[in-house]
Amino acid sequence: MILTNLETVPGKNIIEHYGLVQGSTIRAKHIGKDILAFFKNIVGGELTAYTELLQESRKEAVKRMEEEATQKGANAVVNIRFATSSIAQGAAELFAYGTAVKVE
Length: 104
Hints:
Elements: E1 2-3, E2 14-28, H1 31-43, H2 48-72, E3 76-88, E4 91-103
Parallel strand pairs: 1-3
Antiparallel strand pairs: 2-4, 3-4
């Protein structure tokens, strides 16, 4: 599966268009990690627990989007975008979406 944030795949022709595909995941913060992040915020630096949480969330959302594209018969997803939204206190959704296509 070819995944790109471009509108086309360079060197390939889009021969089929399958429409929008998406994947999402909702993750909640861990209270222990919140406490550590609070102290890290005081002294400064990267909040690695949150970085890891977002990386895992992106991977899961992309995987789900890719699975939907495969079910539709696509071999590529173009124009991929990401969005986030707050769902509840301490929980957020990471949403990946793009256009499923077949290229050759």
